[in-house]
Specification:
7 strands; 3 helices; alpha/beta; two-stranded parallel ribbon; about 140 residues
Length: about 140
């Protein structure tokens, strides 16, 4: 993955780091997307929730994502694993696509590894960002 400037709130970072530390290590079924998320956290500019730009994908943001090759658009909400529900468009931050879009801005395109290969996704629009709406999570 190419290096990029991403923003993650202090609260999101703390919660994601706790989540990752609780994940069991299974060398037979290693999840490289977890390693990718750790790498993303290391690259991120960590900001207080009130200082995150309003066009950045944060936890619980609702976005319109376009798969570049097919042009297929989907409305998704980025959530923690215990809230994930693919049928209602809630994707886990621990999923490949969830890890890919965290910290991206509206208009950005990202290439990311998914189970079927490398896909490009464009963040078409951010419909809701908790911090921009004044909904600061703990």
């Amino acid at each position: 993955m190419a290096k990029r400037k991403i923003y993650i709130t202090t609260q999101d970072r703390a919660r994601i780091e706790n989540l990752l530390s609780e994940q069991p290590h299974d060398p037979l079924h290693a999840r490289t997307d977890h390693e990718d998320l750790v790498a993303e956290l290391k690259l991120a500019k960590i900001v207080e929730p009130k200082r995150v730009p309003p066009n950045v994908v944060t936890m619980r943001s609702r976005v319109v994502l376009c798969e570049v090759e097919s042009g297929t658009k989907r409305e998704l909400t980025l959530v923690y694993p215990d809230e994930a529900d693919v049928d209602t468009g809630k994707i886990s931050v621990l999923s490949p696509v969830g890890t890919a879009i965290l910290g991206y801005s509206a208009g950005d395109t990202v290439a990311w590894k998914v189970p079927t290969g490398v896909k490009q996704f464009k963040v078409e629009e951010i419909l809701y960002q908790p911090e921009a709406a004044g909904h600061y999570q703990l």
